[in-house]
Amino acid sequence: MSSRAEITAKFARAYVGAPKAGKGQILDQVVAVTGWSRDNARRRLRAAAAPPGAGRQVAKRIRRQRNPKYSYDALKVLQKVWAASGGQCGRYLAASMALQLDALGPVC
Known about the structure:
It is built from 5 helices and no strands. It has helices spanning 4-17, 20-34, 38-49, 72-84, 90-104. The termini are far apart.
């Protein structure tokens, strides 16, 4: 038995050019040989017949990055306070932030 890729490549051109009734027969043959479902076989045959590199030809929009909300130093202090508090959620962390900073002292 040939590999599934070879079988797919063998039937791909015939599948794309065949009329609707012929496509059903080709799908039956591919499913019988490979053990794939009909949906998977149809998807793979169409992909094998497409030229390599065919895909989205639309230019991607460049995403702007958001400015950082906190400076690097402030972020490091916030991470230390969060870790010392046991990983509290934001609401509880904000409420206990003053106590946590006083308890940690100049270490931060």
